[in-house]
Amino acid sequence: MSGFKSSDALSAPAAPTAPEPAAQHQPLGLTVHDLPRPDEAVAALQRSSGRWQMLLLLAVCLAPVLASYFTYYVVRPGARASFGTLIEPQRPMPEQLALRAPDGSEHRLGELRGQWLVVSVAPGACDAACQNNLYLQRQLRESLGREKDRVDWVWLVSDATEPPAGIAHGLEQATVLHADAQALAQWLAPAPGHALSEHLYVIDPMGHWMMRFPAALDRTGASKARRDLERLLRASAAWDKPGREAQP
Fold this sequence. Notes:
- This protein has about 250 residues and is α/β, with parallel strands linked by helices.
- It has five helices and eight strands, in the order ααββββαββαββα.
- A six-stranded mixed β-sheet has the order 1-8-7-4-5-6, covered by helices on one side. Strands 2-3 form a two-stranded antiparallel ribbon.
- It folds into two domains: about 35-75; about 80-240, 3-Layer(aba) Sandwich (Glutaredoxin), CATH 3.40.30.
């Protein structure tokens, strides 16, 4: 019986195997539904192109400003061949320093920020040297042509004496303010062996004293001083505009 059963098992046909799923016999590949739609691809390319254009436009707009800051603060135009003495480090103005205008109104030094300043300091009696400085300040500004609106000329009167009536007409374009002499001496300083009133001082639009012209300036020296101012104005042209309200 056992032999019969063994022979029968060997001779019996093998059970049919289950057919493989039809999906296994289909070739792999993408159908048309797997591909991105043409309008979606175009929109994606347009978005990418728009971002790059915006970044490029931003770079073009910022380049002159960044170059101007780099030139003014790093390259320091005129540092090697300037007529005036560059002040290192620059000295920020004491913004809360009290000032008084000839009409009696009260002001603060910080109100002068936002413009390039060419400053002289002298008592109100204003001797011949003082009047020469005032004349050269006016001429320096006028000689800058269309850039003159970026520069103010300032006389800081170092005592309570009122300026002579005879020079009032020549001061119509000037900013004249009384200031405490001791307070000014904490900010501005003359060259060794000279007095504060002998120089003209250059203040940048952010309120930093950054240059001092030689004492007893004459017309030849004023011409050299003008070249210094022109270099400074060119170097700051991208970020400094006429008028205090336009300043960053």
